[in-house]
Specification:
Layout (H helix, E strand, L loop, with lengths): L2 H8 L7 H38 L2 H28 L2 H20 L3 H4 L2 H29 L2 H32 L5 H24 L20 H5 L11 H10 L1 H31 L4 H25 L3 H23 L3 H29 L5 H30 L1 H20 L3 H6 L12
Amino acid sequence: MTATEQEPRTGRPAPPTAARWLTLLLVVFAVLVMSRSLSEGIYDIAFANLALDLSGLVSTVGLVYCVGYGVEVVASVAAGPLLDRGNPKTVLIVAYLVKIGVFVFIGIGSTILSSHLWAIVVAAATVDLVHHIGEMALFVLLPRILDAKTLVRVQGIGGTIRSAAELLSPVVAGLVIALLPGSRALLVAAGLQVLALAVFAGFIAVVARQPGSAHPKSVHAQGSGATTGAAALEEEPAPALLPSRRTVARTLLSSPAWRRFLTFHALTVLALSTVILSLLSLMRETFAMSPARAGSFLAFSTIGAIIGGLVVAKAGPQGVYSSLRWATALAGAGTLTVALLGGSQWILAAALVLFGLGFTVYLRSAGILVQLRAPATLLGTWHGLLDAVIRVVSAGAILATGFLFDRFGGRPVYLVFGALLLLTAALWSTFGTQDQHNLSSTPLHPTPAP
């Protein structure tokens, strides 16, 4: 008798095949990322508009973003150990609820909040804080509940959908703010967060139905002890005594492999983040584009980013290491082409696609590498410390780039960053098999079973 013939007798639905399960998982995760990203695009623009309307000064918009960036650095350092000792799934749900509460409280028309600049700055900082903690919680949760191959596909598709949302969110935010001016636009952001929370519950339900989940698999090839499927969702408590943040930091600095990774990664992200954030200034000041035309050309880098997410999903876990090298070189080639030949708009468009492709493949691959190679029980602290260093370094570089633009112009600056990306690509080519193995061989990693 076949399984389908037995189904009415048992009263239980037949478990999904692996292919159907993976397709459903990717679709649900794509909806989750899209709803989160659209909400983020709306509330970012809404808070900026509120600050500008209340003060009449563009500098206050920078203040809102600067404070938000600062609290994210604090969250990276402080929240990591909490995620390791607690339940990242619960933390992510609480982050959703806090954001929903803030948006509704301001959006329903509270004059105390929506008419005072300090309140908008505090509200925006609160949202940025809990949003970043929620992002960290998802970063920690995914390797606990997905095997390595599925994790790479999920992260790749997530990168593609997020890039697509970056094309849509300014349009959607503009329509929302036109229909619901002022603080009421935040109600739509709240609605999208409610949708994201519901979809996240669906995502967890799909993970629990993973075929073969009754037989947990190791997320890491090295045997980290992390499990997948329903068993992992039981969220076994973390060990009572985990190494302190200081111990983790010392381990990172004392490990030659992780020290090299952090150095190469910091240099690469410094160049990538500075280039992407100064593209608009380059096109307006160096290529004399109008604001509208310059903004439209940014879409070409997003097209490259959409393709990049699909490339990551297709590459699989073993493709992560080579991606660090070739994606950086591709982004460097795109940056140099923009600087040298960007006066031709067709060449500029092609170069931006190349840069966006390299940008997304590199960042997604580096994040996956940390998820797969850091100790599973310390992933929150590990990732938080790395992220804090990267954010501080990138913030300083972005600040300095503004002065360099004014002093030397956009082309020389882009030539320097393009050359730096090619240099880091060469550095990543020296990050060999032994380095990759040593990433999982620190004193804080579990001892492999004999």
